[in-house]
Each structure stands twice: as structure tokens, then as C-alpha cells.
């Protein structure tokens, strides 16, 4: 690990380079700065992201742009009901040599990429969805009993349409927990949509350019893990995560009333990483309480579930999380 002076210099240099990456992404992606920053946060943290949004909001374009700017080899898989695990992982085929000898040869599937786009992931069957579980956690896959390491770095950016649920399969809790954050991609505001019209319907279009290499991204991920985090931030993260578990003694009253299951330790780990990455993107050397507040919903919302009664009452999970965040932040400020 570098000493304090060298670490500060490295963090500042990386912050400047990330500024260039954001500028390059902005040449293709108009607006949606929060979505872009969350996607970069996930990649800097070494994790995966689930993009939730309606069709036509630029989710696929964002993934393509990120692969270009971050210098990553990418593949795209369109998830459909008839997609099989072998269509993602690859399979073994029987080859016959010139001497007549036969042996199995492994043909890699599209998962062997540094950035995998899983488009409309909830349209595939649970069996196919589960093909990603080992890859997302262990960065390797097992085919015919043999492990195969995936390229480094390895990121999955999956998209999901929140309204067309007919013929879809909800992601299991274990797989949702593998996603570092969930990113809500909303409609642009009027001025942003006007800028999109002018930028994308003319003859001249500005394309993003590469800023990072894969090796530089791996180095950046290592640097994020070296960023210092104050004890107060650690305690705020613990307070928040534990307050969101209905069976915990520290559970917030609204959680006991509305939530059937809450986030596990992986959520706290995700918050620790993402608040560092967010601070880095903002040009700061250490994360703040505001970083925890900002990252609470993206990290927690897919790791919690409302009870049937709460859904019947029309409660929204994001509102429940916001109430807990406000309560824990107020208590921390008072302390």
C-alpha cells in the first residue's frame, strides 16, 4: 500500500482521469449524469449493476459507451425465454483429430468478456439466470466440472423493463444480491430531451473515445479500496443497514411494519465501496455522510422486499428507505 502522500497524489490523478472519462461519455450520452455516475461508481467498486428503465432511455447505448471509454472488451446477450445456460457459458464439443482420436474442446460463450450486457435479464428462465450466479460472485464459470477463469476486470450490466412483466421471471433474491447497485433510468427532463433531439438527429455526431485501459481500471479499483473511511462513516453504514432488517433489535419501526426481509452483510460491503467511489468521482479524498445518504437507495432497494400488507396499502420501498435514512442520519448528527 502506498504511503499517505503517494496515495493522495494517486487519488487526485485518478480523479482527473475520471473527469475526462465523464466528459467523453457525455459526448454520446446527453444528460442522465446521475445514471452515468452510478454506473461508473459500480465499475470503480468492481461490481455489477442492474439498470431499471423503460425502453428507449439509452440503457444499451450507455453500456456500449462505457465499454469504449473504459477500454473493455464487451459482449451483449439478449435474454429470451428459450435462452439456455450454454448460450451464455459456452459448451464442450467433441472434436475428431486427423488420427481419428476424439477429445472434447471447450468453446467459450459470450460471458467471456470484460463487460457483459445482459439485456432484459428477467425474460430468461431461472435456470438460465442462475448461470450468471457463479460468474458474478467468483469471476469464473464451471462447465463439465472444469473451472474457467473469466477475463479481468469482469462486470455485468443487466437491464430490466419494470412494466412489461408478462412472460418474465423475477430475479431470485440470491442473484439480486450479487448486483452491487440498482440504477433507476428515468425519463429526461424537457431541456435534456431537447438537447437529445438536437444532438442525435443531425448529420454530425460526436462519438466517445477511450480514456481508460482495462489495466488502469483494475488499478483504480485497487485504489478505491485503499481510500480511508472515517469511523463515523462506518458506524453510519452499520446503523443504516441494521435498521433495515425487520428481525434486528436495531430495526426501525417502519421496517418492522412494512418489510418482509432486509439487506445482509453484502449490502454493508457495497456501501463501503460505493461511498468511496462516489467521493472519488466528486474529487474528494474521503467519503462523507452525504455519500452514504446518496448511495443508500441504489444499494438497498433490490436487497429488500415489502410485505404483502405493505404492498396492498400502496407503500413504496424507496419511501421506506428514505424514512430510515433520514432517521439514522438525524440520530448520527445529534450524536
TrEMBL record:
Is Nucleotide-binding there in the keyword field? yes
Task: Enumerate the UniProt keywords alphabetically.
Answer: ATP-binding, Nucleotide-binding
Q: Where is the ChlI/MoxR AAA lid domain?
A: 256-322
Which InterPro entries does the UniProt entry name for this protein?
Answer: ATPase_AAA-3, CbbQ/NirQ/NorQ/GpvN, ChlI/MoxR_AAA_lid, P-loop_NTPase
Gene3D superfamilies documented for this protein: Magnesium chelatase subunit I, C-Terminal domain, P-loop containing nucleotide triphosphate hydrolases
Gene Ontology molecular function: any one: ATP binding
One matching Pfam family: AAA_lid_2
Q: Which domain of life is it from?
A: Bacteria
- What residue stretches are annotated with the ATPase AAA-3 domain? 48-181
Q: Which family does it belong to?
A: Belongs to the MoxR family.
Q: What is this protein called?
A: ATPase AAA
Q: Which organism is it from?
A: Litoreibacter roseus
Q: Mind giving the lineage of the organism this protein is from?
A: Bacteria, Pseudomonadati, Pseudomonadota, Alphaproteobacteria, Rhodobacterales
